[in-house]
DNA sequence: CTGCTATGTTCGCGATTCCCGAACATGATG
DNA sequence: CATCATGTTCGGGAATCGCGAACATAGCAG
């Protein structure tokens, strides 16, 4: 079997828990749009998944796509395809294991970003 | 008196505690070089100040200048000029007040970055 | 099967940012 | 004054960002 992160060559790549890098995660969370995404996902925990459309973000569709990709490659969210929708889930367990307290700090700040929109 | 952040027009600008923005601070910390700077400054707390040269960073002088500026404008460090040296100090009190726990989370990670150099 | 819609990605372009070396500015030192 | 030390600023090339347009795929209606 393949111990790497992706199932096939064209599958979405998700870094392993051990591969998460603090600066990469911080850079991913250090953007209002992405932080808002994380806060919304935290509100549907656990096991809550949201399609990209449901976020009503103030940026274009292609920019949203890029933000989700950044979050996924940083290891902040997990994405899976279901039909034509791409469902997003917060990687709470992995983030809590590697950087305990970070999400609890970031999520309220993300809610504040949303409140300002 | 002037309630703003800078003393004169040409002085270094430092955002007020109330003006600190979470995403800006996170973006500032989300870079290995800058996180290493923060960790080094934390090791000389409290009241410890370090000149830019003392960091031995793996980037050019002009790039260092830019990183210090990013940290200062994000409100992470405070800079003051003494002769030809620019002394840097961590804004621990302001950061702890606005984002409690963040520095305690980031500093060990910054030390790890340095250890990997 | 043939459109048609809904959801996201990819592509190409202009704008911004990043990093570098070179040059500059300023203060200390002899 | 001449020299050195510490940082900043400037200009250019590389990388990134955000956008609209076009594309790809799944689901649905007929």
From TrEMBL, chains A, B:
<dbReference type="GO" id="GO:0003700">
    <property type="term" value="F:DNA-binding transcription factor activity"/>
</dbReference>
<dbReference type="InterPro" id="IPR001845">
    <property type="entry name" value="HTH_ArsR_DNA-bd_dom"/>
</dbReference>
<dbReference type="GO" id="GO:0003677">
    <property type="term" value="F:DNA binding"/>
</dbReference>
<protein>
    <submittedName>
        <fullName>Transcriptional regulator</fullName>
    </submittedName>
</protein>
<keyword id="KW-0805">Transcription regulation</keyword>
<keyword id="KW-0804">Transcription</keyword>
<dbReference type="InterPro" id="IPR036388">
    <property type="entry name" value="WH-like_DNA-bd_sf"/>
</dbReference>
<dbReference type="InterPro" id="IPR011991">
    <property type="entry name" value="ArsR-like_HTH"/>
</dbReference>
<keyword id="KW-0238">DNA-binding</keyword>
<dbReference type="InterPro" id="IPR036390">
    <property type="entry name" value="WH_DNA-bd_sf"/>
</dbReference>
<dbReference type="InterPro" id="IPR051081">
    <property type="entry name" value="HTH_MetalResp_TranReg"/>
</dbReference>
<feature type="domain" description="HTH arsR-type">
    <location>
        <begin position="14"/>
        <end position="114"/>
    </location>
</feature>
């Amino acid at each position: 079997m393949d111990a790497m992160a992706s199932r096939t060559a064209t599958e979405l790549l998700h870094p392993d828990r051990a591969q998460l890098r603090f600066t990469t995660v911080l850079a991913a969370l250090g953007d209002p749009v992405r932080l808002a995404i994380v806060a919304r996902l935290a509100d549907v925990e656990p096991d809550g998944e949201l399609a990209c459309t449901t976020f009503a973000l103030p940026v274009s569709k292609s920019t949203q796509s890029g933000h989700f990709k950044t979050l996924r490659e940083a290891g902040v969210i997990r994405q899976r395809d279901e039909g034509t929708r791409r469902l997003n889930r917060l990687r709470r367990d992995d983030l809590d294991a590697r950087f305990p307290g970070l999400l609890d700090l970031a999520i309220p700040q993300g809610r504040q970003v949303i409140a300002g929109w």
